[in-house]
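Appendix B, record 7
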Amino acid sequence: MENLFAVVVTYNRADFLHNLLDSYTRLSTAAARILVVDNASTDHTAEVVARASAAAGPPIQYERLEHNAGGAGGFSRGVELALEAGAEWLWLMDDDVEVLPGAVEALDKFTPGYSCMIGRRYDANGKPFFWQHHFVESLGIFLPVSRDVFKHSDVFRTNVGNFEGMLMRASVARSIGLPDPRFFITWDDLIYGWLAAQKTPVVYVNAFVIRKVRAQRQVDLGLRHLNDSSDLSRRYVMRNRGLVAQYLRAHGKYTRAGFAAGTALTFLKELVRLVLVERTLRGAGALWQGWRESRSILADTGWQPMPAVPALPGSGSGRD
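Structure tokens (predicted):
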């Protein structure tokens, strides 16, 4: 896997970032560059990056944004910088995880056949992390798959993304455009993976490559797990339904009745999360606020998806 760029987005989690950057130094095969996008952190993030840059390890490129653009805006800028620098592979990473020493080799064995993939993760307790890995286009929501997806193969075809270690060939990123900063937080990685799936197979592979470091409260419902959340996240879960609908429209896959049903299910799921995980109904107002905002986005007749990114001068088209 040549010219692999790790794109990391961080915001006021300097200690988590330190741990992630340190884990990159323990990789058996190093990334060509680590690109850190700082969402205008007010903690000691800059000092952490400076110390990591001075230590032995992959070269680090650091950019501090003037304002907090959210995870979506941070990854949009990070992917843009990586493509400008000539990256051939993009490894998209939140700041509250760490990479496992053999991660690059584990993923590399799948790259001859696939250009976009997500590896498996351990949770903070060292157990396999639950992940929902199927986007139902008719409803505009993602759902878990009710079976062992690796029972017969180490590759499971999916149609969503995740910014906790999604690996993508640069040519795919150019064809679908940058991650959409209008999401700010929530739904951005799912839709980015879904867009990739419109161009090339996206796969979930049976290789543990990431460990989540930040512990989260959660409730295990068997087929589905519910993690803790925040009012900001609840608002954007509903608000960004408008953006999800616009992307489905752009690809001719939007149905009004089905999407409305999916929105109702999303709202219900968030209420259940409030009751079972947060043990309160405070936060329901954020859901209503986000839903109202989603209606304005949905009504925008001039809305356009993110454009493709032109290839670098003199470069080939690359594989998809």
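Remarks on this record: The chain has two domains: 4-215, 219-298. The chain has a mean pLDDT of 91.
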